[in-house]
Amino acid sequence: MTELSLVLLGVMPVLVIVAGLHDLTTMKIPNWISGVLILGFFPAALVLGLSLTQVATALAVGFVALLIGMGMFALRWVGGGDAKLMAAASLWFGYSGAGPFVLYTALVGGGFCLMLLLARARLQVFALNGPGWVARLMQPKGDIPYGVAIAAGALLAYPSSPLVRAFIGG
Question: Alpha-carbon distance 109 to 9, whole Å?
Answer without folding.
Answer: 24
